[in-house]
Amino acid sequence: MACEYVMGWVCVFYGLGARNPEVLVHGEYGQRPVHGCHYEVTVREGEEPGRVIATIRASDPDSNPIRYSLRGDTKKHFTIDKDSGELRTVQSLDREENSTYTMEVIAVDGKNSSLSVTAVVTVHILDVNDNSPVLVGDYSWKYLCTPRWEEQAVVLASRDSDGPQHGGRLNFSLRSDATVRRNWKLTPINDTHTNLSLNTPHLPPDVYMIPFTISDSSSPPGAPSSTCQ
Description:
Structural class: mainly beta
Distance between the termini: 7 Å
Strand order of the largest sheet: 1-3-6-5
Number of helices: 1
Radius of gyration: 27 Å
Strand content: 35-45%
Low-confidence stretches: 1-36
């Protein structure tokens, strides 16, 4: 069987509603601005780069300027404004490539570089339904016997690169064609596998093209489905 595919910062900040989440960092005269902390930010995958995802503002009673820098962002996915502390994405992020990014933000006293503080930032990438399910395996050598043998079936396998929220159970369905539905049937085995079998006692020996669709469990389905035959 051939397959054709037509195919901000707050101390634990998870919301997407706030446009510029902030944390204000205070210190004492002649001391480091603040002790380190761990902050979390959520970004939706595929968003256009350049959006401010967090703003870091450190302050000191003696009004010395603060300079910000990043450490640990080896692939340069993010940038921080050295004066304003605005943290931005530099490129579109793909959750299937990496679901979390961890880096350090260093705030340095502009008049005394020996005074600095480091905070850890973890950016979580929120999954969106941007991948179609795919048929897995080579079925060109599979066959069914006619007249029909009871319980004989071809097991079809599929996968979806999206997370469980959008991938989840994958649904196989025959095309809305009376002849196809009369001759064939699909019976789910589990979330990713289904049985293809004859739905009629007899078909003439031949090679048959059986069009069917694989869709994910999103409601309504978001990513394009895969159409196979």
